[in-house]
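pasting for the record
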Amino acid sequence: MTLNDTFRAYLDKRILWVFLMGCASGFPWVLIGSAMSGWLKDAGLTRTAIGLFGSIFAVYAINFLWAPLIDRVRIPILGILGQRRGWILGTQLIMLALTISIATVDPSNSLMLASVLALGIASASATQDIAVDAYRIDHFADSPKHQLPAASAMAVIGWWTGYSLPGYVAFRYADTLTWSGVYWILAGFIVCLIGLTLTVQEPVSDRKKLQAALESRYARFGTSDSGQVIRWLTVTVWEPLAEFMRRNGVKTALAILLFVFLFKIGEAFLGRMSIVFYKEVGFTNEQIAEYTKMLGWLATVAFTLLGSIINVRLGVVKGLLIGGAAMALSNLMFAWIAIAGPKEWLFAATIIVDNFTTAFSSVAFVSFLTALTGRAFSATQYALLASIGNLGRTTLASGSGWFVDVTGSWVLFFILTTVLVIPGLVLLIIIRDRLKALQADQING
């Protein structure tokens, strides 16, 4: 495969659709992530409280529980758009209503209500993620292997675009419009996302045919109404996991699940407290907007494209090893900021380095997960893998604020985020030969 083939992969119109749906997937993290952290910090909440508020992200770790519904159930009325787009639009309508509601709430006086509304947004977003990931996988199920990193790269770029640009607007105008006013603007972004969902094309898939073939394996349950229900539930709930285990082997499958759990813990531990850290060091909302959102977005776009090209040549497993190691070391840049104070040149350098390592590792990680999914249950299997990754990120990262409060040291905190990456990399080294063989079989078909 030539370099020209790699660039031509980006000319596929499906790449644009993946980018747009990536924007939809990243945007809710502004609502319940960075913007909410900034609002809570300005409202006077402690680091521990802000960290615990982040427990709402736990829904991303359990969304695999209802992922089979996204594979098998068509939403009434909205289903006319197709299996994937119908679910995406439904979740966006829910997020729009909840965002308008949260714009009318003062978290300092009604923290419980704000938490419930944010949990609702997180639940809708986690459901949307299932459909968005399946949308991407279905579009590229039969594509050449060099298109996987390209599709993964555009999904990552889309995610960071949906997260960074609205986030820039939020922090840029938070001091003049108040956070409540910012959330009204963010509601307008959701309206735009709804328009994009109506514009993109539903993927063509033989999912139903494959699922019907699997149901025939359970003909022993009979043809009665109860037997048909049992067959449907068996294929919907049990078969996605069973097929994943059969295809990879039980030992390798369990090792893969453990690696997915460990890989991004350090990054999540850092991300949960990043806005709080920037504010405590002395950076203003406008500086946070300029550097973490705008500069960060530009760096992410450039480095994600570069990362996709490099990952095609290195292979996904090597990409994970290099990206994971670089991601761990880049966290030490934040420790430097904690020691040096609010120096803008250091802030800019740190954001560029951090976004480079995050983009590189994310492309490899998304490509890795995508290649592990089967065509019959793309939504369920990808959701299971992503949920396990989010489980490590949400459960342990919720204590990040508590750790800083107890130790009183941001430097120790950032050293910890570096150390947390090591176990996942060690496991990857142990199983890398088996993974390379599986990747070759599954990507090449």
